[in-house]
Design goal:
17 strands; FAD/NAD(P)-binding domain; 7 helices; 7-stranded mixed sheet; alpha/beta; 5-stranded parallel sheet; 337 residues; 2 domains; single chain
Length: 337
Amino acid sequence: MTHYDLIIIGGGPIGLACGIEAHKAGLNYLIIEKAALVNSLYHYPVNMTFFSTSEKLEIGKVPFVSNNRRPSRREALEYYRRIVTTFDLNIHFFEEVKEVTKYGKRKKVITSVSSYKADNIVVATGFYGLPVMMNVKGEQLRKVKHYYDDPHFYAFQDVTVVGAANSAIDAALETWRKGARVTLVIRDHEISQRVKYWVRPDILNRIKEGAIRVYYNSSIKEIREKEVDIKTPNGKITLPNDWVLAMTGYRPDMEFLQSMGVKLSNDEVLKPSYNEETHESNVKGIYLAGVICGGMNTHKWFIENCREHAGIIMKDILRKRKIANTHKSLIKESKRK
């Protein structure tokens, strides 16, 4: 069983940032990613443009040059591929971490492929892997998608988009522009205030002119092969439907944190317990980086304000390593005497 100073769980931008800092510190490390490189970004819509400017997505002091002020998904994927080659990061793809257990004074990481020993663990798993389910009849049908990809796929079909935030509004506008007949179903009384400021007037104007139909204070009641039932303030309505794009958000894998012994707050936020000065959790040797630090408050952390987590964590690991080495030296010195 291979031993590492540090194992980083998650190969997104923050996991890569932790790998860079470990590389610079001379640590023997491994990044384990359950799917493709920056898998969350890979699953973003093909035409997506980031809200953040390119310099705010940079890690490792490697410049991110884009054609426009706000980079595209394609440019981001290219940038993070270049990060891996620039630092020759040690990363395993399509290997899922199944369990982290104690192994003496160390940790044992069991994956779908192998097992490893580690002195320290960084959990940088993000939140895009688990969609928030609607829990309605018919949600299991093939026509229901929790990830939106290419608008052309939905051309000239009846599409129901569920949600009021950026992903839902982008999906509604893009599919409509490719010829889809679009209906928005929104639980609240308005479009989310967090929608990108240059997109918000667009969707409001499309709704006003009747190009995109919207039902506020409403929710999906049932989904069938060619229809969808919507619960509205005026009662149930049934609409023809080919596809449901459930842009209902995503959540971090809090159960995985709990399985390692990380404590969560006793409220709906489920904020994990960690020292904000070191990012070490209540479990010694297990650190948290990125969006996972906010629990269910996934809108609090972004790449631009999570990048610093990597340096904070590595500083603490090196501090503890120095203390341990000093202690070992003192023991050896005392034995000589």
